[in-house]
Amino acid sequence: MARLVKQVSIESPSHKLKDCIFSFETPMPDTPPAGARVKVRNAGVCYRLRSASSSSSIKSVEALHCGSPLHSCVRDTALFPGYEVAGTVDALGEEVGETDLQLGDRVIVYPYEGHPPGYAEYIAVPEVQYLIKIPDDMSLSVAAMLPSGALWAMNTVFSAHIHVEKVLAEKGETGHCKILLVGTGGLALWAMRIARFYWPEKRERININVACLRDEGISIAQEYLKVNVVQWNEDLYEEQLVERTKDACGGPVDIVIDFSATSRSIRRALKCLAPGGVMLMSSEHAQGLITRFGPVAEKENHQLVPIEFGTLNQLRNLVHLVSTGEIEPPPHTIFSADQANEALAKIGRGLIPGRAILEFPEDDEESEE
């Protein structure tokens, strides 16, 4: 009989489902011939969404069924599938050729298409190219923040750089580029740190402002970001919020980076953009939103730019920069896998500055229980 291992499913909440978090046992995944099996230590409660609708959420543990052929997993309605995974190499496939990976190596998993859920003690990775070794002086909890959120933030900064250079060139040597960053969660914290590393010589000419979506975000932005902050208080009328944002930014902004990308935030941000301005958003949100707001954007010559999650090489570079201290990771809070309910509740109330990281026990810790 196959060994059973622990897995956590964080499902989309609904009125039919009292609890949206399930902990259960599932068979140990087989090791892919050209890949590896990873013993998960930490997994970030991350941003990347499934493409499936959340309207058909599970009603019980018995309703779970297999997803990826590599791994017994939950339905595609999982709200946070666990694309940020750090752990150790447990097994290598028999067809793996020359590689610098060895059993026990500490690794993170690149969020490739078809990535299995990371909220499990073990996951199967189809090819070893998706595994990146991490230095001994980097904790696995910090490493778990890199594969999805931090990588997306890095690629967003890289993509924004092209537009920043264009704005500064058009405005001359004394001109400024005004950027509005929507949101104060882990993505915004990463983006600020990465931007400050890559744009040091132009920092005086780049004005970054942050729009807080909730009251708790103000202290986070002021303490960790040290930037101008405008509160998007939903009790105010829309036009009041737009005017408040323009006043805080010193006028219309040139670039908006919207990590939340809701219809409301995009509609509001477009009203804050200067003619010819650019809005950057996740490629996973982009298709429907661009179709909806594209005609509105065209009237002011605005660009709506989708941003992909980033490449393997970018992730390797990010690991190096964080491990050498050139980019400081945002704060994070570790929860055991059994505390997933508590983690999600605190995230919902804005009580976690930075990121929430789930942690599975080591084998020796399990044996003591």
Question: How do you describe this structure in short?
Answer:
With 369 residues, the protein is an alpha/beta fold.
Key descriptive features of the protein:
369 residues, alpha/beta, seven-stranded mixed beta sheet, six-stranded parallel beta sheet, elongated
| Shape summary | elongated
Work out the strand percent. Answer: 15-25%
N/C terminus separation: 22 Å
Number of helices: 10
Order of helices and strands: EEEEEEEHHEHEHEHEHEHEHEHEH
Number-wise, the strands total: 15
Structural class: alpha/beta
Give the fraction of residues assigned to helices: 25-40%
The average pLDDT score comes to 80
**Spans of at least 5 consecutive residues with low confidence:** 14-18, 47-80
Sheet of most strands: 7 strands, mixed
Radius of gyration: 21 Å
Keywords: Metal-binding, Oxidoreductase, Zinc
Pfam families: ADH_N, ADH_zinc_N_2
Protein name: Enoyl reductase (ER) domain-containing protein
GO molecular function: metal ion binding; oxidoreductase activity
Question: What this model shows, in words?
Answer:
The protein has 369 residues and is of the alpha/beta class. The chain has helices spanning 140-143, 146-171, 186-198, 216-225, 238-249, 263-272, 283-299, 312-323, 340-348, 363-368; strands at residues 4-10, 21-27, 36-44, 84-92, 106-109, 122-125, 131-133, 177-182, 206-212, 228-231, 253-258, 273-282, 303-307, 332-336, 355-359. The strands form 3 sheets. Strands 3, 4, 5, 6, 7, 14 and 15 form a 7-stranded mixed sheet that branches. Helix 6 (263-272) packs across helix 7. The two termini are 22 Å apart. 43% of the residues are buried. The model is unreliable at 14-18 and 47-80 (pLDDT under 50).
